[in-house]
Structure formats: structure tokens, C-alpha cells
Structure to design on (171 residues):
């Protein structure tokens, strides 16, 4: 996982992970909206809204959900701005806590299976204050989120994945 800065006050987070599964299987997992819940840490209290309208991914699809950040419930709306199965898709924030947010997901066939990469480019409001908030809070939070995500994805790819929905229903 690497963090960097790209012009105009944008920050960038890049991650990669090799999955021992075929590219179509990897892409299929990531394009399913319900799997976002499965790979998001519980402490974010991620919740989809209007699930019946958000059952599949395609270019132009919009998704509404909420997250909790430091006890504040935040509404977030994203849109799939690019969708090229099984190679890549991009979601962008239409409404949410960032001034801008773009998340590019790419999938490449490799001898070991599939190389999955994420590139998140984001900008925070209030440039000077945003720089401070990014340095002391946002970067650490994103690192925690993407580390958790990598762990859950590795469980899924290795066949040891247990659905959080199933766990909540049976606990």
C-alpha cells in the first residue's frame, strides 16, 4: 500500500493483491454490490440503501449508502463511471465526505491467478485543514480499511471466507 500526492491537492492510495482465482471470478466478486459490505470493516457501519435498485453494476449505476465516521453518520452516493469487464471499473463519489473521490479497480491475468489493483484518488475540503486531517486521520483510516479489505479478499480467494451476513443472522 502506498500513499502519494498528485497535483491540485489530490491524494492517491494504491494497493495491489494477487488472488489465486481466474480473472472472471475475481471481477465477478468485485462487481457484486453486496460484496462491498462483506469487505468493509464493521466499525464503519456500512449500510446500503435502496438495495432493490442496486443489485448489479454497470456503467452509470448509482449506489446510495451510509457510513459512520467518528460517530457521525454520513451519506455517500457513488456512480460507476467506467465499466469494462473483466478488466476494470471505476466508481466516483457524487455525494459524500470528500471534495472528490475516484476509485479505479483493475484486474490483470497473471500466472498465479489475478492481479487486482486499486487506485483511489481523493481530495479533501478546506485545503490547509484538509492536509492536516489527511495526515493525522484519513491516511490511517484508509490504511486500516484497505488492510481489512485485503484480509477479507484473501479469505474469499482461499476459500475460507465466511459471510458477515451469515454470521450476524446466526449469532
Amino acid at each position: 500500500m502506498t500513499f502519494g500526492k498528485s497535483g491540485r491537492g489530490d491524494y492517491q492510495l494504491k494497493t495491489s493483491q494477487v488472488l489465486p482465482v481466474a480473472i472472471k471470478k475475481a471481477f465477478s466478486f468485485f462487481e457484486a454490490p453486496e460484496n462491498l459490505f462483506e469487505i468493509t470493516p464493521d466499525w464503519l457501519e456500512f449500510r446500503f440503501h435502496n438495495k432493490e435498485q442496486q443489485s448489479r453494476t454497470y456503467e452509470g449505476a448509482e449506489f446510495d449508502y451510509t457510513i459512520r465516521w467518528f460517530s457521525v453518520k454520513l451519506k455517500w452516493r457513488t456512480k460507476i463511471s467506467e465499466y469494462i469487464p473483466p478488466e476494470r471499473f471505476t466508481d466516483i463519489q457524487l455525494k459524500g465526505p470528500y471534495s472528490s473521490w475516484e476509485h479505479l479497480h483493475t484486474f490483470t491475468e497473471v500466472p498465479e491467478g489475478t492481479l487486482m489493483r486499486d487506485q483511489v484518488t481523493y481530495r479533501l475540503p478546506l485545503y490547509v485543514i484538509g492536509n492536516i486531517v489527511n495526515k493525522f486521520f484519513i491516511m490511517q483510516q484508509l490504511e486500516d480499511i484497505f488492510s481489512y479489505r485485503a484480509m477479507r479478499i484473501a479469505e474469499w480467494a482461499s476459500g475460507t471466507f465466511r459471510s458477515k451476513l451469515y454470521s450476524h443472522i446466526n449469532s
User: Anything to note?
Assistant: The helical segments are 23-31, 34-38, 127-158, 164-169. The longest helix spans residues 127-158. The chain has one domain: 2-162.
